[in-house]
Specification:
314 residues; binds the ligand C[C@H]1O[C@H](OP(=O)(O)OP(=O)(O)OC[C@H]2O[C@@H](n3cnc4c(=O)[nH]c(N)nc43)[C@H](O)[C@@H]2O)[C@@H](O)[C@@H](O)C1=O; Rossmann fold; two-stranded parallel ribbon; GDP-mannose 4,6-dehydratase; UDP-galactose 4-epimerase, domain 1; EC 4.2.1.47; seven-stranded parallel beta sheet; 42% helix
């Protein structure tokens, strides 16, 4: 049986990926934010372990993984401006520690990093794997370092180590702070009778929003490839926050401009206005293509929020 070690199992991507791996017959070991976690996971790691190479080495030795998916991160871009040190320690140093532990205890394991479009400059776009790196946040900077640590593990150690350069990918399992969840939840609540408006930051920011379950399939394929390659995972389609609002509110039978206000206090300190990916290489190398596009993502997320509102009443 193949053994996978997944960090960040309680997050959106981690939870979808664990489901996929279990369905494909893997023995899955998870690194969780805080123990204990229910379920059959044979070895559980705590995210604090990312700070301790020796402890990580022992845990990696106990799991002896064939594949490692490193998804654990401080992934909130806005929060990274408030907590740059924590963000750097978790995302950049934590990745370096995990790679060192793998060198110590699992030299043959394949490694995938959840890298991010946030390391790119916001223009020119669409951004492909060779786009200029110019992060617009402490989060983007920390991930750029983790990304380079991953490519160096490949170049200097010969490890099968790859970076999935993830553009925004959403689902009802997203944290409540990301813009898509905030919009979907507000549309469903207002449809159900709430009257408070939704206050948002930059409405003109452009993002390439896909559907998260499709992205974890691509991550898995990246570790099954014959040769390691860093790949942009994206839909290739850009929309503004305003367009996402329009689709979500229209799905709830509402006109978004009646309910959404711009609050300049929510603008990011450094604008990162335009992230649109070019997924051509993912298509040609692993045969992956995003199917669900941003405006459909908006509708699916409103449906999920509606259901969540109705659940307690049933
Ligand atoms: C690829 C990347 O994707 C995500 O990072 P993000 O793109 O920053 O995602 P977000 O949903 O926080 O912001 C999207 C855009 O929407 C604008 N925006 C306007 N008004 C609000 C607002 O009220 N809240 C938020 N959060 N954003 C707002 C905001 O300024 C930005 O331009 C993470 O998964 C990250 O981990 C990651 O790797």
């Amino acid at each position: 049986m193949r053994r996978a070690l997944v960090t960040g199992v309680t997050g959106q991507d981690g939870s979808y990926l664990c489901e996929l791996l279990v369905a494909r017959g893997y023995e899955v070991h998870g690194l969780v934010r805080r123990p204990p976690v229910a379920g059959p996971t044979p070895v559980q790691l705590h995210v604090g372990d990312l700070g301790d190479v020796q402890g990580l080495t022992r845990l990696v030795a106990a799991v002896d993984p064939h594949e490692v998916y490193h998804l654990a991160a401080q992934s909130d871009v806005g929060r990274s401006f408030e907590q740059p040190e924590l963000t750097q320690a978790t995302n950049a140093t934590g990745t370096a520690h995990l790679l060192e532990a793998l060198d110590n205890a699992a030299p043959g394991a394949r490694f995938l990093l959840a890298s991010t479009a946030a390391m790119f400059a916001s223009s020119p776009h669409p951004q492909d794997e060779d786009a200029p790196v110019d992060p617009r946040s402490p989060y983007g900077a920390s991930k750029a370092a983790a990304h380079r640590a991953t490519t160096l593990a490949r170049e200097s150690r010969g490890r099968f180590a790859v970076a999935a350069i993830l553009f925004n990918h959403e689902s009802p399992r997203r944290a409540g702070t990301v813009v898509t969840r905030r919009i979907a939840r507000a549309a469903a609540r207002i449809e159900a009778g709430a009257t408070d408006p939704l206050e948002l930051g930059r409405l003109g920011s452009v993002r390439d929003w896909g559907w998260a379950p499709e992205y974890v399939e691509a991550m898995w394929r990246m570790l099954q490839a014959d040769t390691p390659a860093d790949l942009v995972l994206a839909t290739g389609e850009g929309h503004t926050v305003a367009e996402f609002c329009a689709a979500a509110f229209a799905h709830a039978g509402l006109e978004w401009t009646d309910h959404v206000l711009h609050d300049a206090a929510l603008d990011r300190p450094v604008p990162d206005d335009s992230l649109i990916g070019d997924p051509a290489r993912a298509r040609s190398t692993i045969g992956w293509q995003a199917r669900t596009r941003a405006l459909e993502v908006a509708r699916l997320m409103v449906d999920a929020e509606r259901e969540a509102l109705e659940r307690p009443r049933r």
